[in-house]
Amino acid sequence: MANSRDHNGAMNDPPPPAADRAVFDNPLDGLLGYQLRRASTAILADLAHSLADLRLRPTEASVVLLIAANPSITQSEIGRILGIQRANMAPIAAMLTERGVIDRSRADGRSHPLRLSEAGRALSGEIHARIATHEARFLRDLPPTERAALVATLRQVWNADGVGGRALSPR
Amino acid sequence: MANSRDHNGAMNDPPPPAADRAVFDNPLDGLLGYQLRRASTAILADLAHSLADLRLRPTEASVVLLIAANPSITQSEIGRILGIQRANMAPIAAMLTERGVIDRSRADGRSHPLRLSEAGRALSGEIHARIATHEARFLRDLPPTERAALVATLRQVWNADGVGGRALSPR
DNA sequence: TATTGTTATACTCTATAACTATA
DNA sequence: TATAGTTATAGAGTATAACAATA
């Protein structure tokens, strides 16, 4: 995966020709969308690897953490917060229930408040630990002040509904 | 990283509790991986929408731009640069050839240098224009100095092979 | 032996439509 | 009528294994 030798400190100077082997120009290198995709897939793959022996995928682990922080939250609410369709939450909730990670009370007849079981709380703690180690791998080369700024800027990028309040890509 | 109310270094404070409706805590909000995934999926969906009437998906458009910038590049080389498996490049190159976007010479017997056709160059120009507009939508709220810094920081995140030179998630 | 291109296949995430049962 | 949960299905990106042709 690592080929492009470039790090151009500031913007996008093309990398200096190497003379001994072919050098290619990557016109995507200065694009936010490209860098987001590459960074996101790299960190996601590493997270998947970090969680693999827990038999949890990143999405599933994120659901566990959200339930841990919000006992009695419903599937639909989780989906709205994490950007997961209701339809895609169903098999995740079913799997976590079947594994004994969550308890599904029945409050309403249609709403099912979700809570972690005892085992689920232990699992949640383990997920936290894995994620902390995982994140540190990617953040260790960034000055601490830049870390928070990066996260905050990213939050601003996808939460930007625009100055006029209109949403981007209103699917 | 637990679930405290979150630390955003400077920028977005969490929205003030509304008192009339339930407020949930998102323990993922301070995580780099989470913010990367949300930002990446948002911008990717917008890009897909921006390219839809060209009948190009983001990946395909990125291949066109890379060929435009590097005439005679091979499929394998494109894959190495963009992080696309050789196996996944094949149907993309076949489709672009069938549509008359690229010309495949046969240099080698096994290497096929790719070049844009006349129509391909026009398409490449259109892609550039679409992407410029698209990127501007997500960057317009960021001070210009922060834009380049953000892109450079993201590049650093996924290109960080670590201080010791070992690669992250070496699949 | 190594590389290019290819086919087949599978997994994850995402998306929509349609259904039920409740409210 | 609107919402919660579910099922079925499809699209897109990514991944591996295996093969033929070529170097």
Which residues of chain A sit in consecutive blocks of at least 5 with pLDDT less than 50? 1-20, 162-166
* Oligomeric state of this protein: homodimer
Query: How would you sum up the global shape of chain A?
Result: elongated
Question: Which structural class is indicated by helix and strand composition of chain A?
Answer: mainly alpha
* Separate helix tally of chain A: 6
Mean pLDDT of chain A: 84
Greatest contact between two chains: A-B, 80 and 78 residues
Largest sheet of chain A: 2 strands, antiparallel
N→C terminal distance of chain A: 32 Å
Report the strand count of chain A.
Answer: 2
The order of strands across the largest sheet of chain A is: 1-2
Helix and strand element order of chain A: HHHHEEHH
Q: What portion of the residues of chain A fall into strands of 2 or more residues?
A: under 5%
Rg estimate of chain A, integer Å = 20 Å
Helix content of chain A: 40-55%
Explain what the structure shows.
2 copies of one chain form a homodimer. With 171 residues, the first copy, chain A, is mainly α. Helices cover 53% and strands 4% of the residues of chain A. Chain A contains 6 helices and 2 strands, in the order H-H-H-H-E-E-H-H. Chain A has a two-stranded antiparallel ribbon. In chain A, helix 2 (58-69) crosses helix 5. Chain A is elongated, with a radius of gyration of 20 Å. The two termini of chain A are 32 Å apart. The interface between A and B is large, with 80 and 78 residues. The structure holds a DNA duplex (23 and 23 nucleotides).
